[in-house]
Each structure stands twice: as structure tokens, then as C-alpha cells.
Amino acid sequence: xxxxxxxxxxxxxxxxxxxxxxxxxxxxxxxxxxxxxxxxxxxxxxxxxxxxxxxxxxxxxxxxxxxxxxxxxxxxxxxxxxxxxxxxxxxxxxxxxxxxxxxxxxxxxxxxxxxxxxxxxxxxxxxxxxxxxxxxxxxxxxxxxxxxxxxxxxxxxxxxxxxxxxxxxxxxxxxxxxxxxxxxxxxxxxxxxxxxxxxxxxxxxxxxxxxxxxxxxxxxxxxxxxxxxx
Amino acid sequence: xxxxxxxxxxxxxxxxxxxxxxxxxxxxxxxxxxxxxxxxxxxxxxxxxxxxxxxxxxxxxxxxxxxxxxxxxxxxxxxxxxxxxxxxxxxxxxxxxxxxxxxxxxxxxxxxxxxxxxxxxxxxxxxxxxxxxxxxxxxxxxxxxxxxxxxxxxxxxxxxxxxxxxxxxxxxxxxxxxxxxxxxxxxxxxxxxxxxxxxxxxxxxxxxxxxxxxxxxxxxxxxxxxxxxxxxxxxxxxxxxxxxxxxxxxxxxxxxxxxxxxxxxxxxxxxxxxxxxxxxxxxxxxxxxxxxxxxxxxxxxxxxxxxxxxxxxxxxxxxxxxxxxxxxxxxxxxxxxxxxxxxxxxxxxxxxxxxxxxxxxxxxxxxxxxxxxxxxxxxxxxxxxxxxxxxxxxxxxxxxxxxxxxxxxxxxxxxxxxxxxxxxxxxxxx
Lengths: 230, 430
Hints:
Chain A is α+β, with helices and mostly antiparallel strands and 230 residues long.
């Protein structure tokens, strides 16, 4: 009799422990979904901003450049990218995040095209870097390059970095890869002012390129850019 | 590799939570049976009890220990004390000689041979039906013995363990141990309900003398004779009870070094005793000890070591990443990222919630123990100290204990071989 009640206890305790664990998994899932929803909402806002700027740009193209605002602040897009990357590593709902990654890449391309146009027409100081990396293989150089780029982005607010995962299954991204002839064996790869740089680039190299890029856009050669220190 | 360690983490955490839930279920089932008495009680019959106090270099504390025994609320003609000096090198012998004037106190001196030998010498001089021991760094509450003796009304009860409480903690380390001991009171009572006690602690466990007559005297048992005798009793289906309101105050180690040494001895003893009594494991006839007490001890040893390994590997990973970061972008740019915190980056993986469940269950156990001791649930910094200090220190004594257990096993094996070889050589010469 005693032994029977003992067995009952072992089984009951097992199910209670299991219930506690399932609750933990449920909570994790709940917060994971909330984060995915937050990402979606940020992306939707950015998407509206880009669309709005595009429309505004078309409408006012004949008028003053003063009225054209930056479609999205560079930091905003970068912040979203950062969250997306963290989510891919830490949230267990890969399906949703793959979709968001595609959406994000598309927004980046749209922003890139628009901001290039704005910069060219209105002579705004800006530098653009297209950055290609991979998550398929363990690419430690990609991680270091990301660090270099985010450091430079903090230093130069006018710098816009657009990052693309080589493995993103989206025709627009594939088109970019074709245009710049990016190969998965030569990653990380950077495109600055239509020049392709493959392999890891040090912070000094990239910074020199950015300064060069700023210079190209300056209409009067007499204007000097402020010397920056590392 | 990462997912493999995650699986191990989940299994060990599941088992650890299982242990806590097991205790909690038992608590809710049996809480009305937990007897905590206030004040003095009267017994119908007072049986003769002998308390053996083994001491070695305890001149500082032995006086308090013996005085507390003399102050026990128990008829003096029914209580005998045997103080055994196990070859002390300080003036312990002079101090205990002072107590010879009491008619119920006997003092003995012997060559140093270890605690178990002192206890066994005391056992030889024991003539009462009940016998207990008291470590010379502990003091008994005056009501402890009477309360313990009520449990022997049950003819099947062969030994009763008391509640060991840390005496006046003076520093953070002793505070942390107090919290741990409070939790142990709760754990022990729950194990007693299920017949699964595996230690009859040195401070004031009382036995029927029959236990030693039937099962033999104390053994060396890797310096943890109080664990071994309990396991020997479990093997022979002798019932061990726990008396939660019999308080024994012990002086907890006041330095990390002393605590480390004590725990090393306990854990090493536990591992070696489990190896010695491995035949008990998962055998139906041995009940709770076989299926719960010993396995949960093994799980806690493994869990602490695994968690420690995980933390160390995370720290190494973090440092390597920081070094790579500094090499890539210089030291000036590496600190800026952590300044703006966003809830988004707060880790909400299942591991986080599972850890919260585990820690909560430990705190609940601690508070229930404290409620049994003090009559109310009370939060204190001790709980925090306990969590932090033990998380940092426990892996070290656990690892060392495992290392020692493995090493000594090997050496005894070698020794056995050497003996065999020696015998062979003898045989040939003869």
C-alpha cells in the first residue's frame, strides 16, 4: 500500500514538473512572438516612411530640395537590422524571422535607391556602403566586419550601411549579388561608390573610403572635411 | 555542441525542479503532521540515554558543549555523558577533566585515531538503551532530548535526527550557511516522512543502542561516519526519524578555507559512501533512499558542476569576443554599445524561465524551513548570500571531491594489487 502511494507521488510530481516546464516554454514562446510582432510593426512604420518619401520626392522633384526629408533615419534602419539579427539568434520562430529578413532587405534596397537619388539631386552629404555577409557558414570575418561598420556608423551619421545576407532567398537581393558580382567564397564583401572590396577590410581602409566618398560629393574642392581622429 | 549542452541543461534542471516539487508535494500532504512544540513537555517514562562527545583540540568550545548537555531538561540519573579526548594536542584533556566531578560524566583519553574510534570507545562504555553523540563544536537546546525521546514511542523508530541550526552567525559566510541549514531542516523532515534520511548528523542524533548491537560500531567511512551509519540502517530497513523542534546549535565555519575543507569532506564522503552502498540505488525494497535521496544527491553534484562549466565557458566566450572586438575596432569603440538598454534584447528563452522556476523553488524550500524553525516566513539577506556564495564556491569543493574520490579509488585499487603481489611472493618463498 505504502509503495503504491509512493509510485503515485513520483508520477504526480513528474507531471507537475512537466507542467512547470511547459509553462516556461509557453512564456518563452509568448515573449518571442511579442518581439516578432514588435519587429513587424517597426518594419511597417519604416515601409510607410519610405513610401511616403518616395511619393514626396516624386511630387516635389521639380521644386526645392529643402522639402525632401530623409526617408528614414539611418540609425532607425540599422537598429532594426540589429534587432533582427539578435532575434534570429535568440528567438525560436525562424519561419517568421526569415520572412522579416526578406522584407528588411527589400526596405534596404528601396531606401538605398531613394537616398542615392536624393543625395545626387540635392547634393546632400552622404556615403553608402552595401555590405554582403553570410550566416550559412561560420564567418568570423563577417562578424568583425559588422563591428567595423557599426563603429563607423556611430562616428559618421551621414553614412548609410545596407547589409545583405548572401543566403536571403529574394530575387531583389539576388539581383544585387549579380550586379556587383558577389561570390559566397569571397565574403564579407563591401561595395563603396560602385567599387567592390572583398574579404575583411580594416577600420582604417573603410574609413578612408568613406572620406573619399564624402569628398566626391563636395561641389567645391576648396572645402575641407574635418580631420577625424580614431 | 551548444544544443547538446542545452539538452543536458534541461535534463539536469528538470530533475532538480523535480526534487523540489517532490519535497513541496510531501510538505502539503504532511504539513499537519509537522510537530513544533514550544516550552517544556513531560514524558511518561524517562529512558536512560548516554551522550558521547568525541573531541580533538577543542579546548575553546568543549566547555560550552558539555555545559549545554548538563543543562538538558532531563533527569540527571537517566543521562550519562562520556567525553572522549581523541589524543588532543592542546589542553582539551585538562578542560574536560574539570567535569569529572559530575557523577554522570565520564572522561576518557585515547591515542588519536579519528572521530569514529572515539565514538566506538564511548559505545563500549554505554550501558543505557539509548545512545547519541554531540560534536564538540555544538550546543543543545535544553528541551532537545525530551522532544527527541517522544519519537521513540514508536517502537520501530531506531534513530532520531535533530534540527541543526547555525549558532549566531557573525559574518556573511556564516549567514549564508544559516540559510542553508534552515533549508536542510525542511528537506530532512520531508525525507523523514518518506523514510529517506541518509545522514544522522554528528550533532545530537540519538539511536537505540540496539542499532550498534545489531549492525556493529561506527566505521571510518571516509570521515563521514554519520552518513555511513544512516545508510547502513537504511540497508537494514531501520527507521530514522527527524525531530524538527529539537534544536542543536553549531558553530559554522567562519572562513572560506574552513568551509571548503568541511564541504570537501562531506561531499567526498557522500560520493564514496554512495559508491560503497551503490547496491541500494534504484532497488525497490529500499524505497525513498534508493529512488530519491541518493539519486537527488548525485543530481545536485552533477548540476552544480555542469552549471559551473557552462558559466565558465560563457565567460571565456565573452572575453574572447571582447578581445576580438578590441583588436578589430580599438578599445574606444567597444564600450558604447551597452549603454542603451532595450527590453527587446532581454533574453526570454525558455532557459531563463526554467532557471527562475528552479531558483524560486529553492527559495520556497528555504522559507518553509525557516517557518518550521521560527514559526514564520522571513526574508533576509542570508538567502541572497547563500545563493551567491554557494554558486561561486560549491563547484570548487564538488570538483575537488570528485577528483579525490576518483584518485583514491585508483590508489586503493593499486594498493589491492600490491597486496596480491606481496601475497604471491610470500607464497613462493614459503
